[in-house]
Structures are given as C-alpha cells and as structure tokens.
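Quick start: what a row looks like.
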Amino acid sequence: MRVRFMVKVDLRSDVARARRFIERRVRRYPKYVNIGPGADEDPIAQIVLGYYVADAAYISLIFDTRPDADSDGAWTLFLQDETVLMFPKWVAAGDALCDGKAVELTTLRGAKKVLVGDEGCDELVALIGKMLADLMKKLRREKLFDALPLRDDAFMLVEDFGGDGGWPESYDVIKTEGRIKPLRSKTSSKRPSAARRSASAARR
C-alpha cells in the first residue's frame, strides 16, 4: 500500500528560495542604514547566514560591520522582516516528526527520503544546514559577495540558532575557511631575467 505523507519537504525549491533571498539582500545592501551589528559607514567584516528549523523556521542574512566581528550570536538581535525568510514547511515537518508521523524529504538531487521520529528530526536539521552551507560556498565561488563593501579579511559563516549545526564546523577555522576574498599573493621580489632587462634597455 502506498504511504501518504501529510508533510513533504523539497530541498530543491527551498534552496532556490534561499538563493533568491540572499541575492536580494546583497543587491539591496544599503549604504548607511544596515540592519546588523556595527556602524553603518564601516565595511562589512562578517556575513552570517543564520537559520532555525524548529518553532519559527527561517533563514536570516546579517551583515556585521564591527571591526572585531566574531561568532558571538549578535546576528540574532537583528531578526526583522527585511532580514528574514520564513519556511513554514520546516515547522510542519518538525511538528509531524515530534508527533511520530513520517515526513517525505526530497534531496537536492531529487532522491526521496523518509524521515521518522527524533532521528528524522536531527537528519532534517543536518540536511538543511548542509544545504545552506553549500549554497553560501557556491555563491562565494560565483563572487556574489564581491559587490559588497567588504573588509579584505571579511569572512562568512552559517549558524543554527539552536546550536545544532553550522559551517565552518570548528570555531578555530571560521576566519580562514570562511574567508570571502582570497588572500592576496605577495609581490614577487625576484630580479627580472636578463632577457627582460635587455629588452627594457633597448626601448630606452
């Protein structure tokens, strides 16, 4: 007999919504009225993609301009309509799992998974966290964030409001693995080759 699921979560549509939201936040980044920690006129030191799967399920993109920005949870103080995108189906899925009902989840590759109980709830949170981390890394590769007024050492992270996951996984590497701009290569101090010196002299 075919099982009928009361709640279905499709990560393909969720990641598309998340991407559009992030792109819009970057495009609309205001010059002097930033809803986030730090002074409006300062460059961005940290970008946080926060998320929460339980209760009021959402993602939130916050720009932190504090020179000493750190992974200290300050982003949670700036959850407003403009900075948040809600995902009602995550709430419904969590409630269903807590009630002992099965939830059907479609992965980013289109595979179907059946989630059940507490283990299913943990897996849901983990899969959503990985989806968001992979999305942020992809947008970094595409240089989406380069349009923003970033500090040279600006970094990004993905953080679960409940503390159950995130990226980078270790606090010690947040500012290296999460770095947005690549480190600038040092200017070479090698002496020009004889051929280049000769060509240069001939042009004089």
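That is the whole record. The chain is about 35% helix and 20% strand. Residues 186-197 have pLDDT under 50 and may be disordered.
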